[in-house]
Amino acid sequence: MSSIASQIPQLEGWLGQNLGSIGWxxxxxxxxxxxxxxxxIWAARWAARSLRRALDKVNAQPIVASFATNLAKAVFIILVxxxxxxxxxxxxxxxxxxLGAAGLAVGLALQSTLSHLASGVLLxxxxxxNVGDFIEINGFTGTVEAMHIFQTRLVTPDNRxxxxxxxxxxxxxxxxxxxxxxxxVDLVFGVSYGDDLAxxxxxxxxxxxxxxxxxxxxxxxxxxxxxxDSSINFAVRPWTSxxxxxxxxFDLNQRIKERFDAEGITIPFPQRVVHTVAQxxx
Length: 282
Known about the structure:
- By secondary structure, the chain is an alpha+beta fold.
- Helix content is 54%, strand content 17%.
- It folds into three domains: 2-109, Helix Hairpins (Orthogonal Bundle); 128-176, SH3 type barrels (Roll); 182-263, Alpha-Beta Plaits (2-Layer Sandwich).
- The radius of gyration is 35 Å and the shape is elongated.
């Protein structure tokens, strides 16, 4: 701060010397600076539009294209302003020192915001998910509706909107259910200890084979999962496309229950056997 204060008298001295005797030379410089500003701003807009078209041609992410275009435009305009000020003959050293200190203060004040911005750029480059993907993050699940430079908007299955800061998305474990295109349905069905296990397995495999939404590759898996207290639990693991995951889940639950009833296969209720011991009379 002391170096900035030492530059202020130099700037005041220049202003006092030149503003006190405005002449043709200064008028010409002012007109030249105005011309630099007008042409420079026009050139900055043209360069930004050209950069955006070039990024769109290579199918760059919209968030990356927007950020790169705005950043290039801002840098171009700053250079134009510096050139206009330099053309007036104003000493740049004290101005740049003041701007540097102000920029540092603003950067510290907006540290959290800048973190979100940097995270937005990382998300656009690394692309852990795209718009339309179904993801889970920090206990929230939803479909990505929009990606912005500071935040991402999710829509939950019950149509709630979640605004998620981008820094959370880059610093937390994230599950993308859509990226691979297929998902495994995990179901468990319990049958009685008195039922024929081979017959139950064949019946479950037949139900899966008859559904066109169940993929052949990877092949579905059916097998005894656990010998529980009241039932023998079968694991049913078919693979399907992400769009068919929930419809297939609902249909299989209903169809298997109805088929078990038709075939006389029992889904037992939890039960406990209690043995009583009679004590001999004294």
